[in-house]
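[Q] Does anyone have a clean structure-token version of this?
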Amino acid sequence: MKSSTAHLVRLEDVATFLGGSTPSRVRAHYFGGGIPWVKTTDLNNGLISSTEETLSSLGLAESSCKMIPAKAVLVAMYGGFNQIRRTGFLQEDSAINQALTAIVPDPNKLDPAFLLEWLNFRVGYWQRFAGSSRKDPNITKGDVADFPVPSMAVDQQVASARTLATWNAGIEKVERLIAAKQKQLNYLREHHLTKPKQSRRVKLKTATHESTARNGKRLGREAIMAVTKQVGMRPMREETIAAAIDRYRVVKPNAFAYNPMRLNIGSIAISTFADDVLVSPDYVVFECDEAKLLPGYLNHLRRTRLWASHFEAAGSGGVRIRIYYDDLAAFAFPLPSVTEQERVLTVLDAGVAEIEMLERYLAALQKQKRGLMQKLLTGQWRVPMESNEVAA
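[A] Here you go.
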């Protein structure tokens, strides 16, 4: 690949802009026809193949909606400066609502697929407005008009976008595979954990016990962990740690910890650390009696509908509740023998390991694509052109 750097031009100099609107909701016959009508929620930072709502021909004719041509690039304008992260590429002529702006590139100056990649690459650009003195939190058409885009030959833009499309296709395939594997794992959890053979129904208190050990002066601040639904246990930010940590609770390896005010939304985690760690003194910590219940088995069980329904019911109502150990210990579930638990864990842990491997692969692909985008979209690298492409 050849190397050089493209200079930047204003988007307004290489494209035109079209707006949208919402027909009167009072007139139900304006909706439900065959005309795609794009809203912010339809944007996926990629190709728009379907829309949540559609318009009728009458809805289009009697409102200020206009048809936007296919291959226009859409950006979200409302909802704060981060909303511009939502973009889309029209695959067919469509109408749009007033929260979006359609960018129609000049075909002699800007390739729409290239523009979409560039918008997604430069999402950080819009943060400059977040700290400004402007009272309006929305992106304006003037902001979009001033957005800088690389000026390079259209054939190079097309070639760069085509190269990135190959990476996009690979990333999408891995994402779909992860989703399928996760669906399969969820099914296996429901099948093996909520309806196991040769089991007896017990309450959690018969196979676990609360741990009330406090830190004292044993462990330092680096051992303090937060518990989140998305990540599990992770180091707690220093600014959220109290000055004195002697009352922080000790969490042994394979023990569980949770915030009693957030258990009903899934904020619970098992400690996968080799050594003891600490959590907030307000957390609940409990351990499994491994002669009856394996920690790994419970860690899968907490991801089933049986577990979710129990704690969602406990957390229903308008008042934020606290679920302490005695409340958690009342959870009833079918418990098979430890030998059967080990057999099930072999299957489920293999499923988790496969998903984690795919997620690492996906992260590597995304990182590699980011580096490739940096080179291609700024013109530092140029894709070699075939002779027939140059001639065309």
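[Q] Thanks! Anything notable?
[A] The CA atoms of residues 37 and 95 lie 5 Å apart.
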